[in-house]
Amino acid sequence: MRYLLSALLALCSACAYAQAVPVIPFDSVPDPLKLPDNIYFGEATGVAVNSKGHVFVLSRGNTTGPAYAAAATQLLEFGRGGEFIREIGKNLYAWSFGHTVRVDPSDNIWVADKGSDMVIKFNPAGRVVMVFGRKQEASDEETAPLKHPKPPLPADDGRFRQVTDVTWDPAGNTYISDGYINSRIAKADKDGNWIKSWGERGTKPGEFNTPHSIAADAQGRIYVADRGNRRIQVFDGDGTFLREIKIDVPYDENARPAIGKKPDLAKMEASGGPLTFAPGAPWTVCITPGPNQVLYTSDAWPGRIYKLTLDGQVLGVLGESGKQLKQFGWIHEIACPSENVLYVAELLNWRVQKLLPGRDRYMRTRRPLRRRALSSSRASFSRRLICLISYSRFDAVERVGVIS
After folding, report:
1. Cβ(165)–Cβ(100) under 8 Å?
2. Are residues 166 and 238 in the same domain?
3. Is 164 in contact with 100 (CB distance < 8 Å)?
4. Orientation angle between helical segments 2-20 and 393-403, nearest 10 degrees
5. Do 319 and 393 have their domain in common?
6. Which helix (H) or strand (E) holds 129?
7. β-pair type (26-29, 241-245)
8. How many other β-carbons are positioned within 10 Å of the β-carbon of residue 172?
9. Same domain, 6 and 136
10. In this structure, which of 60, 188, 215, 343 has its CB flanked by the most CB atoms within 10 Å?
């Protein structure tokens, strides 16, 4: 009996911790986007949603050229119901190796292309209205893939080296994360005039190791997914460092990676190299609209999505690595038109999933009982004991295991 009580106490402790960082129930809508015949997604690198509910997908499909260094960018638009509408920018000069797509408050569509080192602004009609950066000239004998010298070469105003993402503050200023080589944030005004940039390669506050994704909140604070340093950095609109957010949530050390060997975290940290595949390393950052904004981010391993307050409190987690619905293969961008609707673009699975947090039927019917039993800090041990005994032994172990 003593051993049984000890085991139940341990389970109670795990349940109490689960309330602090709960698993968020969710559904994935099957086949949310309908592609026409003879058009296929490649690696889905970006997804965005406009004010009408139209979905824009940036895919490394429609590949042309040699096996290596081929152009691989395609921008597709879908209606609110998932019906295909059009391809935007077919054979555009800037297309090389697409990275992210965003939609601004005026429904303009922006694409960051890592291969051409350019950011392109399309108006809602799909016409190019502004460009940032410049592609290398095909006729130059020096034209070749960019090198990654350490330390990186000094950044050049108005030019990028493997640019990653773009966002805007309420005043209309543009912020560009740049990127795999330059490791900085660039700022331009609403007319496209270059204002400043900040950051360099490093681990200190205001330094970056692959600023991979960027977003702004309603107050104009800038959130940067500093992926290689396993943190989100927060700045004001002038680049003043405000705080950093690190996601330290328990995970299953035996979780399967989406591809390759399981990351060796100890070796990764000892090497001093980028922490790209460490748990909690942010590949994405998305902030919901509205007065009560929340932040979503994701990692590659164990392959989860994290929901946070803007000050960094983790509200819950969802998902895991894999190939089935509700599993993920390297989420590269998240669109969050509301707190309860997410679109996620996956590199490895060549798809976009539409997720509905809070709408999983199984968890919705059974989880409230557990919440009621454990929500009150005044609940006695006997009440917790009854809560756990009311479940089957397998069910209790399963629920604790999922939360780990």
Report:
1. yes
2. yes
3. yes
4. 40
5. no
6. strand 128-133
7. unpaired
8. 13
9. no
10. 215
Q: pLDDT band for position 372 (50/70/90)?
A: very low
Helix residue ranges per DSSP H, 261-338 = 265-271
Q: Are residues 250 and 342 in the same domain?
A: yes
Instruction: Kindly tell me the number of DSSP H helices and DSSP E strands found in the chain.
Output: 5, 24
Residue 361: pLDDT band with limits 50, 70, 90: low
Looking at the structure, do residues 49 and 81 belong to the same domain, yes or no? yes
Q: How far apart are alpha carbons 287 and 297 in whole angstroms? A: 9
Over residues 40-52, the pLDDT tens digits come to: 999 999 999 999 9
Domain count, the chain: 2
Single-letter amino acid, residue 236: D
Which residue range is the domain that position 140 belongs to? 26-359
Helix, strand, coil percentages in the chain from 3-state DSSP, rounded to 5: 15, 35, 50
Q: Which residues are CB-contacts of 260 (< 8 A; sequence separation ≥ 6)?
A: none
DSSP label of 146: P
CB-count exposure of residue 392 (10 Å: 0-12, 13-18, 19+): exposed
- Per this entry, what is the length of the chain? 404
* pTM for this predicted structure: 0.85
User: Would you tell me how many other CB atoms lie within 10 Å of the CB of residue 145?
Assistant: 10
What residue has token string 């109490």?
A: 16
> ∠ at Cα 311 (309, 313), nearest 5°?
55
Element (H or E) spanning 9, and its range? Answer: helix 2-20
Q: Say how many CA atoms lie within 13 Å of 269 toward its Cβ.
A: 6
